Every structure is written in C-alpha cells, then in structure tokens.
Amino acid sequence: MAAFLLVGGIASSSAQDIDQKNVPAVVKAAFSKAYPKATDADWEKKGANYEVDFDLGKVDHKATYTATGKTVSFEKDIPNAQLPAVIGKNIKAKYPKGRIDDVDWINTAGKITYKIDIEGTPDVNVWYDANGKFIKEVAD
C-alpha cells in the first residue's frame, strides 16, 4: 500500500491542476501580455513549469512558462489542411488506414514541430519536425 501511495504521489506531483491565484504573478503577467484576448484559461503545474490551456477565438492553445515568466513553448490546434504536404504524405504512407484527427503546431524556443493524432488501427500520436522528418510515435 505504501508503494502504491508513493507512486501515486510522484505521478500526481508531475502535473496537477492549480487555481489561477496560485500561479506566480510574473507568469500571469507574461501570459496576459502575450494573449490579452485569451478566454477559458486552465492552469497546471508540470514539474517546475506552469502550463495554461486557453482559447483564442474558437481555437485551442497551450503555453508553458517557467516560474520566472519565460515562455518555454506555445502550441495551437491547426486545421488538417495547414499540415505541411510532406508530413501528410509521410503519414499516408506509414498509416494507410489511419485518419488524421487533430493537428497541433508547436513552437519550442523557435523550433517548430507538429503533433498529429491519428485514428486507425491502432490510434497513435506522431511528431514530425517542420521539414517532415519523423520524430516519434506514441500509442494513444
């Protein structure tokens, strides 16, 4: 039982929902300055960083900040049609029975990657760099 509680405590400490009032003021200020029209902000603490899921218009976004308010990464949902053609072609070749369900455009310190959710047999999440190079696959 103690091992179960220890593992559960470790797992829950890696990412936990937090109330906006518990987000450092410098982080909230950086977020408000970058996204003044954001709505529906939900905060999580992931390790030492703060992650916020929010909407701009009708588009889902996510931003991650250090405790000092520096942006670590930014991502947003994009229409499937905005996925670079080379990536779409690679996905069709590698997952011929799969269907692209969701595409996230991710900017981490200026490095652009794409996370694509593929429904098929089996469902997977795949990551590609901006040039269409496969990075990794994770079962969904």
- Count of discrete structural domains: 1
How many alpha or pi helices? 3
- Give the overall shape: elongated
Q: Could you describe the largest sheet, including whether it forms a barrel?
A: 9 strands, antiparallel
Strand share of the residues? Answer: over 45%
How many β-strand stretches?
A: 9
CATH class: Alpha Beta
Give the H and E element order. Answer: HEHEEEEHEEEE
Distance between the termini: 29 Å
Question: What's the gyration radius in Å?
Answer: 17 Å
Percentage of residues assigned to helices: 10-25%
Protein name: PepSY-like domain-containing protein
InterPro entries: PepSY-like
Pfam families: PepSY_like (PF11396)
Domain Putative beta-lactamase-inhibitor-like PepSY-like: 49-136
Q: Explain this structure to me?
A:
By secondary structure, the protein is an alpha+beta fold. It has one domain (2-139): Nuclear Transport Factor 2, Chain: A, CATH 3.10.450. Helix content is 24%, strand content 47%. It has helices at residues 2-14, 25-34, 85-94, and strands spanning 15-18, 39-46, 49-56, 59-65, 71-78, 99-108, 111-119, 124-129, 134-139. The chain has a nine-stranded antiparallel sheet with strand order 1-2-3-4-5-6-7-8-9. β3 and β4 form a beta hairpin. The chain starts with a helix and ends with a strand. Mean pLDDT is 89; it is low at 1-13.
Topology of this protein?
Blueprint lengths: L1 H13 E4 L6 H10 L4 E8 L2 E8 L2 E7 L5 E8 L6 H10 L4 E10 L2 E9 L4 E6 L4 E6 L1
Antiparallel strand pairs: 1-2, 2-3, 3-4, 4-5, 5-6, 6-7, 7-8, 8-9
Can you give me a brief rundown of this structure?
This protein has about 140 residues and is α+β, with helices and mostly antiparallel strands.
